[in-house]
Amino acid sequence: MKKVKFIYNPFSGEAVITKNLDTIIGKYQAKGYTIVPFRISTEQNLEDAFLDIDSSYHHILGAGGDGTINQIINIMKKKNLDIPLAILPVGTANDFAKYIGMPADIGSACDKILAGKIQEIDLGKANDKYFINVFSFGLFTDVSHKTPTHLKNTIGKLAYYLNGIKELPSFKKLDIKVTSDEFFYEGNALIFFTFNGRTAGNINISYKSEINDGLLDVIIVKGENIRSTLSSLLAFLKLEHLEKPKDIIHFTTSDFTVEYSDSSLESDIDGEVGPTSPIHISCIENGLKMIY
């Protein structure tokens, strides 16, 4: 029987994964797979899940939110594991899983994976950390870190909008410099995104992005003043912000550098803490095998 390393986070989202373990194992066994589970906990290093992975394993099945999947991918790349990854979306946002069409229902998600194909997708890299969905800093990252999980679970993307508007008057604009072959910008930024996927916090921000074009989509909200920023947020709601970019910069690139002067500023990489300035960001074309 083919083996599958099943890495799951029992604390992701509302702990839905623990109620579906028998469903997952049953569906995989019915297709001739042997599930080898690893439960993520504070008592054990996640890297231990990869100690026995060899050619007898068909793929890794990761169950968790965006942050859990990010950790799995970074360990895979660190260990040079060229094995396909499949995702069960059981976190709060599950942005990338939704982008590739993974159903929220665990049983249906298993069915899709088991009937799916191995596909190569692009992967982002910020300094020495990889990301599958988005790298960001600025207001959105600050709001995401401050928004309580229960609000994200109950009212979804509306929680980000409400908290974002609340934080606007006190949030300090950033001085940034972006350098690439395609584009140069030096000036203000309220929000900075680099997308491989399309959504962040379930908000469809980078709706033109593709995961197999060898490019990353960079979106900068300049935030010149409160009026223009509120206008930009309204454009986000209407999905017009890339069509009528009054206060927004959007370009695509495979390689660039971004710098900012605030040494205390946290960046975010798929829900995990990211690197600090200066940051070299690149697209690794066909950098990851996935099943969906």
From TrEMBL:
Superkingdom: Bacteria
SMART domains noted in UniProt: DAGKc
Domain DAGKc: 1-130
Keyword Chloroplast attached: no
UniProt keyword Nucleotide-binding present: yes
Keyword tags: ATP-binding, Kinase, Lipid biosynthesis, Lipid metabolism, Magnesium, Metal-binding, Nucleotide-binding, Phospholipid biosynthesis, Phospholipid metabolism, Transferase
InterPro entries per the UniProt record, alphabetical: ATP-NAD_kinase_N (IPR017438), Diacylglycerol/lipid_kinase (IPR005218), Diacylglycerol_kinase_cat_dom (IPR001206), Lipid_Phosphate_FormReg (IPR050187), NAD/diacylglycerol_kinase_sf (IPR016064), YegS/DAGK_C (IPR045540)
Cofactor: Mg(2+)
SUPFAM superfamilies reported for this sequence: NAD kinase/diacylglycerol kinase-like (SSF111331)
A molecular function GO annotation: kinase activity
PANTHER family attached to this UniProt entry: LIPID KINASE YEGS (PTHR12358:SF106), SPHINGOSINE KINASE (PTHR12358)
NCBIfam families in the record: PRK13059.1, YegS/Rv2252/BmrU family lipid kinase
Record's protein name: YegS/Rv2252/BmrU family lipid kinase
Organism the protein comes from: Fusobacterium mortiferum
